[in-house]
Amino acid sequence: MEEVVLARKPRSPLRLAMRRLKRHKTAMAGLFVLVALYLSALFADFIAPYSFDDELRGNSHAPPSKIHFVDAEGKFHLQPFVYGVSFEFDEFHERVFAEDKTKRYPIKLFVRGDEHKLLWVFPTDIHLIGVDKPARLYLMGADSRGRDLFSRILYGGRISLSVGLVGVTVSFLLGLTVGGIAGYFGGWVDSALMRMCEMIMIIPGFYLMLALRAAFPPTLPSTSVYVMIVLIMSFIGWAGLARVVRGMVLSIASKDYVTAAKAVGGKDIIIIFKHVLPNTLSYVIVSLTLSIPGYILGESALSLLGLGIQDPQASWGNLLSDAMHVTEIQFHPWMLIPGAFIFVTVMAFNFLGDGLRDAFDPRMEVGRG
Amino acid sequence: MTSYIIRRVLVAIPLLLGMTFLAFMVIQLGGGEYFAELRLNPQISRETIEQIEQQFNLDKPAVVQYFYWLKNVLKLDFGYSFSRMASVTGLIRGRVLATMLLSTSSILVTWLVAIPLGIYCAVHRYSWGDRFASFFAYIGISIPNFFLALLLLYLASVVGILPLGDMTSAKFDDLSLASKVLDIGKHLIIPTVVIATAAMAGLQRLMRGNMLEVLRAQYITTARAKGLPENRVIYVHALRNAINPMISIFGLQFSSLLGGAALTEIVCSWPGLGSLMLEAVRARDLYVVMGDLLIGGILLIGGNLLADVLLAWTDPRIRLE
After folding, report:
1. Which ipTM did the prediction report?
2. Which residues pair with A96 in a beta bridge?
3. pLDDT-based confidence at residue A34 (cuts at 50, 70, 90)
4. Beta bridge partners of A142
5. Chain B: residue nearest A207 by CA?
6. What's the CA gap between B257 and A320, in Å, rounded?
7. Which residue of chain A is at minimal alpha-carbon distance from B264?
8. Which pLDDT score, from 0 to 100, does residue A8 have?
9. What's the pTM?
10. Which of A234, A346, B160, B175 could lock onto B142 through a cystine, CB 3.0 to 4.6 A?
């Protein structure tokens, strides 16, 4: 008797999708950028040379430090260094910063600085990068209080990047539950829930966001602000998803394999979890990835307008709010940098989401030409 | 068609009612202190404030207040702005016009650029132009409106040709009619470019996709086989079929356009509905927020309806019954 031996184990659709994803260059680039950004936020207090609220009013709006290799005497140094800066007022009473070229401050790795708790647990005072006091290393310039913008961006990433994940989780749980219930039970439950979704979707999102913000007191402690932002964004976000999930549940429930599963006596709950939901998985993953930027942008918008995260706490949106006045950006263009971080993050999520969609659904590639 | 439009409007009314009721309750939940500023003003006596409170029924329960508000809205009276001491109807009227102007110009620019670009990219697939356009589309989709607006304002402040924000110059009232139009036009450029960039990117990709799909159809092969000039095949036979699905996008786009426009308005200090909404939320100005929400909802429904009607009008296969 001959036995058929498969040369390789059959590959699961998920494995196949991951293989396709690995070949998708832009998606992998997006993934790489995102991993780097999230890691930088996670280790913000270690990477950042200063704490997010480390002020030095004398250095208000100090421009990004010039990094030198050649000193005043024309000697080359392998280790890059900066000079200390001091300012004078010009004829418009604007500060003009000048470098004091008498003393070099080499940029060092693993320097001692402020105390912080690495990953919220291990107390340490080691920072990845820094210079000796009294000089300061402003990789991306300083804000109006002389705080290091680069450090604040890293700390701000903790809020801006996590709000996307948390917000998306909350609204997906809501959307999946409501959509699942509506699609499964049908009838008046379905129409009542769907009318509710439509009520939310009838308002332009930004207007709804502002109106919901009005329901909360103008000033809140920073942790409550975070929860509030997540609540507002999830409230807006779940409706659209619930509608789509409902539609998918309806269409899948009428498929032959579900009928077959029912015919052989499968229980409803098992059919839903084993046969129906896994079929929505690829859609859920793709739309999850593509909807995260919306939450990040929502947080940024609220904080940008002064309705979200408040100073001294940093988020990319409230950092950018310092750049809201034209005169501000004219004199201190580096205040725009937090916006670039938002832009890059959103772009990376879009790249990854598109790559995932192509990977899960190879037919899409043809359509996209 | 008329009966379809009437039906759509009838369906929208309970939704709008439900939404405004919900919003009213939610905002009240946050505790409305509408007179904080008035109370601080020593020139206004406590009695006056109580009188205003009674006049606007603010001493009654929230549910009752809602129905008073609704009754007034049906008479086109949107209430009173306590922070500005002005009628909301008057406030909103000017703002709606400004927002409509900005939205219209953005839609025009979006479509006038995106459709030809999409066609070009489909016809010259994989050319450098196509690749550049798709790269540009990614940037357009990803760049936040407020960031792009700030960048353009920065650029404009360096170059110094375009005005930096607002809708009119300081000397607007003294200008002749022609210069007034020109003045507003100049102020329109930055916000329009910002909104159009975001909208354009997606539209251009869709148009390209549609066009490619149509170009694969058999009737295109037939048209080419019978010796029609390529231009005629593309611009007469293919284009008309490829552009149809785009019209339904128009309605979908309207929603994001309004949302995106609001933030752009604020950054560019364009005096539209979006900036009004922000000011109202900051001042906790209940009736302005409600009015703004209602008008925003109506604009959105109107836009979607317009798109569906347009689609039925251009595509004989679709019957709205």
Report:
1. 0.82
2. A88
3. very high
4. A148
5. B293
6. 22
7. A301
8. 65
9. 0.84
10. A346
